[in-house]
Give the backbone structure.
Amino acid sequence: MADNVHKGHRERVRKKFIKTGFTGFADHEKLELLLFYSRPRIDTNAIAHNLIDKFKTIGGVFDADFDMLKEVDGVDEATAVLLKMIPALSKEYVNSKISLTSMGNYKTACEYFKNQFLGENVEKVRIACVDDKLRLVDCAVISEGTPGTVAVNIRKIVEFTYKNKCESIIIAHNHPNGDLIPSDEDIKATSDLFRTLKPVGIMLLDHIIVAGGQAISLKESGAFTLLK
């Protein structure tokens, strides 16, 4: 009898999503639906509540470490893997869209890097190589560490750019503390990087800073006006 009740409930929830998407779903109900696919014979409503109680928001759930997820009552390894796949797949989805789009528009670049830093809790520096039509060729993390201590490795930038046969790059890094305002160090690092790369035939097109789910272009903000 209990199995029939769960089956009927799950079918109603699935049909509701097919009809309206997540409109009208509470956060725990969204997770409950997702967890149908990792816990097919268990009441996932309770697990969803446990996750929200511990991590407060859906974003908090998806950003949680794998081992922290497994500490939640009802979360087995398959469930933790499923939850960690969601932000990873989100990045892949956006990347597949961006790869056919020009990165010359600062808004596009900001959206791209906001997605790249989704769920990151440590400071990282990423480099994106673009072709002569400013389409994304490749992107990679070139350094990471504690906030304020991440150094930009010029050699890695040059090697990565040459490997991708590109002449133009966009640099981005995140501020895990949520402060979007560029620091004096950010401005100086951008200037130094621009002047170091130019003689070896690499053009720094922009420097994007990501924090608190937002992004800012240093070029658009005027920080590149003095770079020659």
